[in-house]
Amino acid sequence: MKKSLIVASAIVLLGACSSSDPEQNQGVMITEKSTDVVDCNILGVFNVDPQSLDSDNGKQELSQRVISLKGNAVQLIPLTTAEPELVSAHVYQCPEAS
User: Fold this and answer.
1) Any idea what the Cα angle at residue 61 is, between residues 85 and 17, rounded to 5°?
2) Which residues contact 27 (CB under 8 A, 6 or more apart)?
3) Spatial CA neighbour of 62 closest among 89, 86, 39, 36
4) CB count, 10 Å around CB of 82?
5) Is the N or C terminus of the chain more exposed, i.e. has fewer CB atoms within 10 Å?
6) pLDDT single digits (tens) 34-58
């Protein structure tokens, strides 16, 4: 029961910090949808606290970490095992829009 409550809380928090449209922060696309990164190359994965994404500072820190990995997009995926209070941040290098 406790684990499912934590997972539900993480999903609600993640949903509250983003909309269905990708968000831009410092030139980095932040999204939850896999269709936004379908033509991109994955560079790395790390976990992040979804509550930190509620603030502009937290989003800037996320963007800086993505940029340091030479990425320009990040997909946030709620974790359902191991660390359900976190989300998985998948960093991508996507083609520039022409």
Assistant:
1) 50
2) 63, 67, 72
3) 89
4) 7
5) C
6) 999 999 999 999 999 999 999 999 9
Instruction: Identify which of 55, 3, 12, 7 has the alpha carbon closest to the alpha carbon of residue 32.
Output: 12
Rounded distance, CA 95 to CA 25, Å? 17
**CA gap 72, 98 in Å, rounded:** 15
Distance from C-alpha of 1 to C-alpha of 41, rounded to nearest angstrom: 37
What is the four-CA torsion angle of 10, 56, 93, 33, rounded to 10 degrees? 40
Question: What are the beta bridge partners of residue 48?
Answer: 87
Q: Could you tell me which of 64, 59, 61, 67 has the C-alpha nearest to residue 92?
A: 67
- Ranges of H-type helices in the chain: 2-16, 56-68
Is the distance from CB of 43 to CB of 69 less than 8 angstroms?
Answer: yes
Q: What is the DSSP letter of 52?
A: G
Q: Which two tokens stand for residue 8?
A: 């539900």
